[in-house]
Amino acid sequence: MGPKSHSQAPTTLYTTISSSKMHCYKLATYVIAAVALSSTAFGWQPIAHRGVFHDVDDSQANAENTVGALYRANDLNLPGVELDLRLSSDGVVLVTHDNLSNRATTVDNYDGHLNSVRVALGAQPSAAGININSRTGDQWNHTPLKIYGRNSQLVSDGAQKMETLDEMLRHFSDLIAGNDGKSFFLVLDIQSPQIFERAADLVRSHNLQGSVYLKFFATSAIDSSSYRYEGAKTCAAYAHYNGLTGLKIIPQINNDYLACWRDAENYIVSADLTHVSASVAAGDHIAAIGAENAIKWAKANGRGTMSILPNTDAGSSSRGSCTYWSFQSNNVAAATFDQNARSVKQTFFNDLSRYIDYVVVDTMGNVGANTYYTDFDRYVSYLC
């Protein structure tokens, strides 16, 4: 039985394609990924991006990347969530999305009331950005978080707090232990080699190798200066020497490296590769071809597939119309949602949707009806 209220394909796709190169491989880099999840024979299933934090009723909304958003996804019967990670100044892994704290937390140089959409509209002055990596883990831990409700109003009472990854994994472990056998998984979005190493250690320390998956961009999360591409043993060696043995990974890499990770499974020290994910950016024809090839490679090699379809972050109403906004990791102000990019990415998803098993997508909860929405039109209808 498929999940509720997502039968229409989402109508936005938001991700970045990298064209940089690594020493470990020879081809252009495409956005592709792999994860050990079970496939579905009934079409794609949604993975809640940052958990389920939006709700049709503002009083039921959560802050993103929180324990509440994690539990809400499970309560509404989604198969899993993807959460974001950043590193504090002293090397503590924190569960948060932005490089700057101003938008999502009360540490914002504006007495806890900075609203990124109002800054973008010129209705509120901007403030100096505060980098997550400028403070220690103890300083950030349990920092109150904001909730953006309808019409981008701040509706948080500060009760939901930022968590360390160690704490989040403890909560996740409690969740699955009390889940009566129901499957639920967690995907961690990795941004740097330092986060990669620490996250892998924490997943192993909580004995969650079977339920938590590490997703990373090869060009930003792996220090490849010491690795030359020599086929499967390159990936096996990387897994062994970087603490990935036995872990489930989502390497976002090119076709050459997909085969590398696949064949490395023959080495006892390597990690698993069972699913591949692909997405495209506007105006990059070569990357689009590579992304399509990656999906087809997965099917030809007995792997499942995954894609990424984030919806808009917020909406603001003016003169009877709703303007859609995207939050920015490195800017205090929100940015207008890129409709052209959405159209290009949606076309890619539509063309390949019959091949796709899982989609990481922003999800609108409806606690009152015990359901959720991921299709774009239904989702945005509750933003303003």
TrEMBL record:
GO terms for biological process: ethanolamine metabolic process; N-acylethanolamine metabolic process; phospholipid metabolic process. GO terms for molecular function: glycerophosphodiester phosphodiesterase activity. Signal peptide: none annotated. Residues 49-171 form the GP-PDE domain. It holds the Pfam family GDPD. It comes from the Eukaryota. GO terms for cellular component: plasma membrane. SUPFAM superfamilies: PLC-like phosphodiesterases. InterPro entries: GP_PDE_dom, PLC-like_Pdiesterase_TIM-brl. PANTHER family: GLYCEROPHOSPHODIESTER PHOSPHODIESTERASE 1 (PTHR46320:SF1). This is GP-PDE domain-containing protein. It comes from Sporisorium scitamineum.
